[in-house]
Amino acid sequence: MVTDYSAKPSGGLIANLGTDNQMMHDSGSEEAWIEVIQKMDLVYADLVRYQVELEEKNSALEEAQHFIESVQTAMTDVLIVCDIQGRIQQANKALETITGRSEKELLNRSFKELFGESSQHLVDGFADKIRSETVYDCEVNLLRADGKPTPLAMNCSSRYDHNGRLVGMVLIGRPVGELRRAYEELHATHRELKQAQEQLVHSEKMASLGRLVAGVAHELNNPISFVFGNMHALKRYGSRITQYLDAIHKGTAEEEREALRKQLKIDHILSDIGSLIDGTLEGAERVSDIVLDLRRFSGNQQEDTQPFPLAPVVATAVDWVVKAARRKPEVSVDIPEELEAVGIKGLVHQILVNLVQNAIDVMDEVDAPRLQIRGWQDWDNVRIEVRDFGPGIPKQDLMRVFDPFFTTKDVGKGTGLGLYISYGLASDQGGSLIASNHPDGGAMFTLTLKAV
Predict the structure, then answer these.
(1) At the fourth CATH level, which superfamily is domain 306-451?
(2) Fewer Cβ within 10 Å of end Cβ, the chain: N or C?
(3) What is the pTM of this model?
(4) Least confident stretch, 34-43, 165-174, 405-414
C-alpha cells in the first residue's frame, strides 16, 4: 500500500489541534518526504548496480557458451550429453558427421538408438554404472549414416547439477581406428628407431675395428712373415732330404753317400729343422692369439668373468690404435706385470681401444700429443687411468660424455657412441667408467674393475 503524504488531514483534526501542532505536523511531513526520496535514490542506485552486474554476468555467460560451442565443434571425439533417462540433450559436430543426423534431430531421443545391436548389452548398463563408477575405454559400435558400424573407445561419466544431484551422463568416444593407426605408427616408429640404434652401435664397433686394421695388419705381418720364411726353408730342406734318401735306397756307395751328405748339408738340416718347426708353431700361435683378440673385440660372444693379467691387454690395445693413428702420440704405460683383474678380457680390450682412440682424436690439434696410462690396485678394485694432454672436457659436458650420440667432433667424424658403448661394457662386467679433468690439464677416464 502506498501512503499519500500529500493528502490533507481532515477538518475535525485541524480543529482539535492548535497552530503549533499544525506547524509541527507540516515539519514532520517534509522530513518524511526527504527520507522517502533518499531511500528511493538508494534503491535506484542498487537497481542500476544490479543491472550492470547482470549485464556483465550475461556477457560472461555468452562468452563461456561461445567458448564451449567452439571447443565442441573443434573436437574430433564424439560428445553426447544425456539426462538420467538416457535422452540426448546435447551433441557435437563430430557425432553429427559420423551419424549424418543434426543435433536438432537427435535431441530428446534415446542415445541407445545410435549404437549397433552388438553394443546394446554394453550401453544398457551405462545408466546404472555411472551411479557408482566411471566407464573407461569401453569399445562400442556407433552406427554411421549408411548403417555400418564405427568402433569407438567410449568413456561414460556422471553429470551433476549445482546441488550435487545426479542428473545425467556424459559420453565421449574416440574412433578406435584412429587409436589403432596411431598406436601402429608409434610402434613402427619405435621399432625403426630401435633398429637404427642397433645399426649405429654396430657401425660404431665396425668403425672402431676399421681404424685398427692398419695396426693389426702390422701385428699379423711379423708372425706370418716368420711362418712364411720358415716354411720355405722347410720346403728346401725336405727336397734335400728326399734326394739323400733316394740315393740311399738306390744302394749308392758309402763314399758317394758321404759326399752327397756334405753337399746337401744334411747334418745342418737335421740340427736346424727342430728350431724351424718350433718357430713356425710359435708364429702360428701368435697369429691365432691376434685373431682371437679380434673376434673378442668385434663379435658378440658371451663370456664369463674370470681373472686375467691387465698388462698384455693394455699393451695390445695401445699398439693397435697407435700404429693405425695418423699422428702418433708419445705414450707412457705404467701397468705392473702382476696386476690382475676379474672381468671379460675381450670387453676390457674394447673399452681400452675406445678410450685410447678417443684420447688420440681429441689431441689432433695439439702440437706434442702425449698419452699416459697407468694402473694400480685399490683395495678390492683395480683402476686403469687413461689421461690425454688435450683441451680437457668442458664442465657443462662432463655429465653428458656417456650419453648416446653426444659428440663434440665435427659432423662425419664421430657418432657419439664410443664412450656410450664403453660405459655399458664396463657396467656389464660389474665395473664402472668415470670421466674427469686432470688438475694439470687434459681429460682423464678411469676404468674400475674387480680385483682378484
Answers:
(1) Histidine kinase-like ATPase, C-terminal domain (3.30.565.10)
(2) N
(3) 0.46
(4) 405-414
